Amino acid sequence: MSELLQYSRIKYECTCGKFRTLPDLVFCRYCFKIKCDDCSLGEVDNIFCPRCLEPSSVPEARLKKHKCASCNDCPKCANVLSARTENDNVYLVCQYCRWSSREANQEDQENTKSWPTKENPLVNQLGEVTAYMKRLELIENAPKDLKKGKSGKAWTAFHLKDKFGFQQMVDKRKKALAPEMNPVDAHAPTEAPTLEDEIKERTDDLRTLDQIIMQPLINISEPLLPVQVPLAGRVQVRCDECERTLIKRDFGVTTFKFKISSFARQFVPDIRMSRPVDDLKVGETSHVFLSITNLSSSAMDLTIAPQSGNGFIQCSSDPIQLLLPSSRASDTAAPGVHADQSDVIVFRQHNRVGLRLDVIPTEMDLSSPCLNLLITYCQDGSFRLSSASDKILKPEETCPDPILSANLKVDLR
Amino acid sequence: MTETSTVSIASSAIVCVEADIKGEVIIKEGCVVHPFVVFDATKGPIYVGENNIFEEYAVIRNNSDGQPMIIGDWNIFQVHSKSSAKYVGSRNVIGVHAVLEDGCSVSDDCSVGAKCTVFSHQNLEPSVSVYAATNLSRTTKTPNMTSPHQIEFLRKILPSYHHLYGKKKAVATASASAAQ
Ligand SMILES: [Zn+2]
Ligand SMILES: [Zn+2]
Ligand SMILES: [Zn+2]
Ligand SMILES: [Zn+2]
Fold first, then answer.
1. Please, which contacts does A216-224 make with residues 24 or more away whose CB atoms are closer than 8 Å?
2. A295 in any annotated domain
3. From the list A93, A97, A205, which residue is nearest B113 (CB)?
4. What CA–CA distance (Å, rounded) separates A94 from A76?
5. CA–CA separation, A40 and A25 (whole Å)
6. E strand or H helix at B179, and its extent?
7. How many domains does one find in chain A?
8. Does the residue A405 lie in any domain?
9. Is residue A368 part of a domain?
10. Domain for residue A379, yes or no?
11. Across residues B128-148, what is the average pLDDT?
């Protein structure tokens, strides 16, 4: 989609200095700052199976090892496996490559749930070792905790929710106040298989890297098993400064609606290239056509100043000031310069303006021509009003919104 | 009608009138040919067995010089598949947008996955499955599910919504024989 709308060609500068495309940016109305994925906080708010869309709670997902119990993928081609019934039992078949669970020498099952998977043969030993390491950790940390005055009482209601398994840790700590130390036996070394052994044991079909990655525990001598579908997480976004939620989807994984959405598009002018740039020639003037749309709910005062130098293409156009009406008031005639009175403004259409900028490339620009624009914009104040709707504003507080500015990189290739 | 453009369709076969049939083509009992299927037998005859399904926009083209192209029984040629194979056996599934190149051959119980290609030098052994973007192939134990219900349903439902090739041809041949 972003390729189709050519969003990827124009990068906006985030508050943190990184350049991102407009759909990747969010806006915090309270801090009045643009935020990107690097300077906002992501938080998993829902875990679900991408195939059957069944949601799982966090402990449930941990119990299931973050895999769906009822959905399986083909180990050969990673397509969905479907169940075929025969004599009241089911087996799994890939409709695409015709792999079936019978090829893996699997007995037919009564239902599609909990298809057998390969477990790590060393799982018990691993558990013992981790438990031992935890006990060691406790003993090592005990004097430090005492010094700090932390005595295990400082747990809050936050931990009782057990979202991150803290409760278990607390219980374990309490239990392990006097941990006993039984060193675990070292894992006895086994002979490394020789190349001849591996070739002897190998079945005829060679596996692709993808197939091995899907089931890393299965040896080359064993048949591939149905792959349990890994669960997916849905992320909600918070501002890293004020911790307010910026993006939150509606309850339920099947919906695409948002409960809270504060995308940068709703605030920042949406600037796109309206026409591809002709072939650039050194020393000759070329035109760059931009369309600027105000998608916010209030009128916008916008100045676009082309920046030259520093490795960016030379632009001969003067800075231009525009007053863009809001998308809601789009049927009222737009104030400001009319299209026929300016060289720069190509068209004016409700809340959208078309611009033509002249660029003169030099030899250096031709390999990666990039136009740098400095945009300075300001809303008429209704934006701040709407953000503060939870408290009553005094008349003197209804000031215009702060002026924001951002650098833009336009890729002219 | 000239000798080289003889189309023979069995009485129980359902061939939609939008199908484009050129040259010597024989379609036997129980076949279902959806609209916009192309049979191009201008370079050599095409003999189709019983109970095959040809889905929309499937192209069956004989590119050999006069060699007959033979298709067995109970095959499914899915939407937009292209076949110039000299021989296709029985109970095969040729997937969506799959291509059987000139001169290749497919035996029985094979499946060619969506968008896969069987190259012209290839002769598929029985029960071979061709899959993935790189046209991997292997022998499979899982049979194709060519259920008779699907073709029965199609034979029943298609005539209610489409004009049939056989009907139009019958009228044409009747008037032709009357003129003789
Ligand atoms: Zn950022
Ligand atoms: Zn699932
Ligand atoms: Zn498969
Ligand atoms: Zn904030």
1. A217/A118, A217/A119, A217/A120, A218/A118, A222/A118, A223/A103, A223/A104, A223/A105, A224/A75, A224/A76, A224/A104
2. yes
3. A97
4. 9
5. 10
6. helix B165-179
7. 1
8. yes
9. yes
10. yes
11. 86
Q: Is B132 on the interface with A (CB under 8 A)?
A: yes
Nearest residue in A to B130, CA atom = A97
The total number of residues written for chain A in this structure: 413
Question: Rounded to the nearest whole angstrom, what is the distance from the C-alpha of residue A21 to the centroid of ligand 4?
Answer: 20
Give the per-residue pLDDT at A189: 82
- Tell me, what's the pLDDT at A267? 84
Rounded mean pLDDT of A158-184? 65
Under DSSP, the state recorded for A135 is: H
Residue B144 tokens read as 């194709």
Nearest residue on chain A to B145, alpha-carbon basis: A95
CB contact under 8 A, B129 and A98: yes
**B102 Cα–ligand 3 center, Å:** 27
Which of A2 and A104 is assigned the larger pLDDT? A104
> Over the stretch A322-378, which tens digit does the pLDDT of each residue have?
888 877 765 555 555 455 556 788 888 878 888 888 888 887 777 788 888 898 888
CATH of domain B6-179: 2.160.10.10
Give the per-residue pLDDT at B175.
44
* Residue A75 in tokens: 């180990």
Residue A393 has pLDDT above 60, yes or no: no
Question: What pLDDT, on the 0 to 100 scale, is given for residue A26?
Answer: 92
Three-state secondary structure call for residue A227:
strand
A76 touches chain B (CB under 8 A): yes
Go through B31-45 and write b for each residue having 16 or more CB atoms within 10 A of its CB, e for each that does not: bbbbbbbebbbebbb
Which range marks the domain in which residue A337 is found?
A: 269-386+395-411
Mutate to test the interface with A, among B92, B142, B144, B146 (most CBs of A within 10 A): B142
| Residue B109, phi-psi category: left (phi > 0), alpha (psi -120 to 50), beta (remainder) | left
- Can you give the pLDDT at residue B173? 45
- Please report the ipTM that was assigned to this predicted complex: 0.78
Partner-chain residue, chosen from B111, B136, B141, that has the shortest CB–CB distance to A102:
B141
| Chain A (102-121) residues lying within 8 Å, Cβ to Cβ, of chain B | 102-103
Report the C-alpha gap between B53 and B76 in whole angstroms.
5
Task: Assign residue A282 the CATH number of its domain.
Answer: 2.60.40.10
Tell me whether strands B128-131 and B111-112 are parallel, antiparallel or unpaired: parallel
Report, as an integer, the average pLDDT of A226-240.
92
Of residues B57 and B143, which shows the higher confidence score? B57
B131 interaction partners in chain A (CB closer than 8 Å): 76-77, 96-98
